[in-house]
Amino acid sequence: MNRLPRHIAIIMDGNGRWAKEQGQDRLFGHFHGVESVRNIVEGSAELGIEYLTLYAFSTENWDRPEYEVTGLMELLVDTIRKEVPTLNKNNIRLHVIGDMSMLPDSAKNELNEALAETATNTGLNLIMALSYSSRWEITAAIKHMAKDIENGKLHSGDIDQSTLQQYLSTSEFPDPELMIRTSGEYRISNFLLYQLAYAELYFTNTRWPDFRKENLYEAILDFQGRERRFGKTGEQIKQEATTNN
Ligand code: IPE
Ligand code: IPE
Ligand code: MG
Fold first, then answer.
1. Phi/psi-derived region of residue 120, left when phi > 0, alpha when psi is between -120 and 50, beta in every other case
2. Mean pLDDT, all residues of the chain
3. What is the pLDDT of residues 33-69, one digit of tens each?
4. pLDDT value at residue 244
5. CA-based torsion, 100, 77, 50, 193: positive or negative
6. CA 107–ligand 3 middle distance (angstroms)
7. CA–CA distance from 194 to each of 71, 121, 155, 165 (Å)?
8. Is 135 near ligand 2, meaning CB less than 6 Å away?
9. Active-site residue set
10. Which residues are in the CB-under-5-Å shell of ion ligand 3?
11. What spacing in Å lies between the alpha carbon of 167 and ligand 3's midpoint?
């Protein structure tokens, strides 16, 4: 319990395949995926995880068939709105990262209300990546930096890694230490490319609608068995561990 990751990021994948395997429509899979979200948010809060980022919809997902995009958006926004009382009860603060300009106004309003209603909670930070992609985020950050240079707010000579970090949509959050992807795909799919630089990656064949707290614990235990070296040697890491204890 004292070696938990502070920040876990999850690519919630496999809803469509889960549904197809049961002869159902893809939206049926998304619908059941919501139950996994509830379970994992609850499990993370119980453990005392500080930050949980869930990849719910990528900018590339806008190119899916229209009925799926509409159905999924409605489900996401509707769920977030309905879950606000539970979030408040559990002291969970909601954040959203992504290109909100792509969302319909009604969805934006509902999200903004949910953000405001949970803004003073101090427990788990639940970060929903919605209409998000890393390349969108980095491009937006650079545009913003260029504008601040034009305005004289930022000097190009002062730019370092922390400056770039401050312009990302994740500026308030520490980098994820553990990234989980469900459903047997071994890729990042444009998720937090900058922030995952030193994250431990965990892949499982379990489809997202089947993913529960027990699966999260397995991922955390796997994470805890790894040696994180950050470019140093294993000997240095062991040395540091003994001097710190
Ligand atoms: C993840 O499940 C949810 C989203 C990407 C929105 P998918 O819909 O990608 O499911 P598969 O990968 O097709 O099974
Ligand atoms: C990544 O899943 C996006 C989300 C889980 C929201 P996809 O299913 O869209 O990714 P690809 O297309 O398989 O890479
Ligand atoms: Mg997928």
1. alpha
2. 97
3. 999 999 999 999 999 999 999 999 999 999 999 999 9
4. 86
5. negative
6. 23
7. 30, 27, 22, 9
8. no
9. 13, 61
10. 13
11. 29
Give a yes or no: residue 86 inside a domain: yes
Q: How far is CA 243 from the centre of its chain?
A: 34
| Centroid of ligand 1 to alpha carbon of 215 (angstroms) | 18
The answer as to whether 164 is a domain residue is no
Q: Which of 13, 28, 62 to mutate to test the pocket of ligand 1 (most atoms within 8 A of CB)?
A: 13
In this structure, the residue with its CA closest to atom 13 of ligand 1 is: 16
| Residue 165 burial (C-beta neighbours within 10 Å; 0-12, 13-18, 19+) | middle
Q: Is residue 139 part of a domain?
A: no
The single residue listed with the structure tokens 């230490």 is: 177
Token pair for residue 64? 């899916």
Question: For residue 79, what are the domain limits?
Answer: 7-133+174-244
CATH number at residue 103: 3.40.1180.10
Give every strand in the sheet of 51-58, ordered side by side. 93-97, 125-132, 51-58, 7-11, 178-181, 200-203
Asked whether residue 81 is domain-assigned, the answer is yes
Spatial distance between the Cα atoms of 225 and 96, rounded to a whole number of angstroms? 31
Count structural domains, the chain.
1
| Contact between residue 8 and residue 53 where contact means Cβ atoms under 8 Å apart | yes
| CB of 200 shorter than 6 A to ligand 1 | no
Confidence of residue 245 (pLDDT cuts 50, 70, 90): confident
**pLDDT number for residue 143:** 98
| DSSP string computed for 114-161 | HHHHTTT--S-EEEEEEEE-HHHHHHHHHHHHHHHHHTTSS-GGG--H
